[in-house]
Amino acid sequence: LSYRIIDVSAGDSHAMALTHDSVVYAWGNNSVGQCGQGSCHSPILKPRKVMGLENIPIHQISAGTSHSVAWTAIPLDRKDSKGRLIRQNKVLTWQKPYCIQLKPDTFSMLHIFMVELNKDSTASVNQEFLHLCLKLLKAHLELAVAGSMCQTQIMGKHGALIRELLFKMMDCEIPSETHQLVKDTLILGSPILLPALEERMSLLNSLLPERWDTLSPGHSLQLTLVLDSFLEDCQVTQLLGLSDSSKEKRALSSSLMKLLLKMTSSHTNTLLDCVEEETVKTVGDVETENKKCPVPPHHLYKLLLCIHKHILAFCCCKGVTDSSSVLDLLRDHVKLLLVNARDIVNRSAEVIKGKDIDHTVVEGILYPSLPGQILHQLLYGMLCLPATSLKPLLSEAIPLLVALDGLARGIKGLEVAESNELAEDLIKPQQGNKSHQGGPWRWLLDVGRATACFVGTLISGMIEGGDISEEEKKYCSILQSNILSNGLEEAFLHC
Prior knowledge:
The chain has helices at residues 104-118, 124-146, 151-154, 158-170, 176-193, 197-207, 217-230, 233-240, 247-276, 283-292, 297-318, 325-354, 359-366, 370-382, 394-409, 414-427, 442-464, 470-474, 476-479, and strands at 5-10, 14-19, 24-28, 44-49, 60-63, 68-71.
């Protein structure tokens, strides 16, 4: 069969198979029509599609002595990870891989085999047997992932041992074919092999290095897989533990964000150093340097932005007060990010002024970094919170705005382009002129405007003052009358 089989059942003298798209096949003894072919011609030597089940969602099959059964309803024992019944409208077919019937001892034996064979993997016999063990492990992990199994269900305590062995093999001198097979097994089976959330968090903190070049291939792959696993919304929510008042979890989240900011800023500054030293001269050189990085920088930026969005969403939805520890966490994170972004912008301005270099090279470094793709999203999102809650960020936002203005003035033609852009918008606002969209460094204008909008909102919030007093509320109805409200700049709708 050229289909993905998700269930198999063997009767007394016939067998059945169910594919992932709800097609049932049967073969074997058909003396009483148990193969569902509309006749009693027997035997059926090759699998044939059972008649009469077209376009019917089948979730399970069973073959008996001389009968066959196909279930259209989902069995009651099939529940999701939270213990809730999986309804028929939420799934198409139930994938129940055979590997869930395996005991942890099976993986224990695989671990023992791979440890012994890895001691002398150069021997052809050992290498061939090691490949078979890895392929068997890969097949079991693939089926376990498809069936949404967890590590403790099928591997027990041997999961951690196998994970450590596989990552250790990534750093060993083994044949390239074996190395690739180990890597494929880790990538495919990462949902099963990676530890639980809290242990994974500690693992991430231990893996993030001070310098990229200190990472081994095994650590690099492990770090990439852990970062990818945190990009899921449910994982980030559990990672931050915002609803949990635990100070330890809050401190762990804070240290993670600080480390991510430090590493991303360090990577950007390293590239700018290379530009100054003239080891990076073209945009292609920048891409080459990024590829040398053991963990792609965009993984770190993506996780950093994802964490920020979750904290911001929690603050907006829960209506946290100024004394909230979650709001303090958000403000501390944004304040540190603004400082890092300012330093990178100032450093870029120095590089551009210091030497006659191609400005597009510096743009290729800055655009994917903190001041590029992340900063304007972050600042516009922060405006969802009350301006009074964001006042502590003003002292860091203003120097950033000055730094962005200084960088823009140092780029040839950008100031003229901005003036032309504003003129075009004033002359032809109704035509939706798009000539100014895109182009070199135009994104820097958007970042500058986002920062200016952020600073302006904070200042205006300070000028407006506090909430309306009781006396003002008392006389609102009088001021709203047609006679007395004539000439007021704003209506007292908020009263």
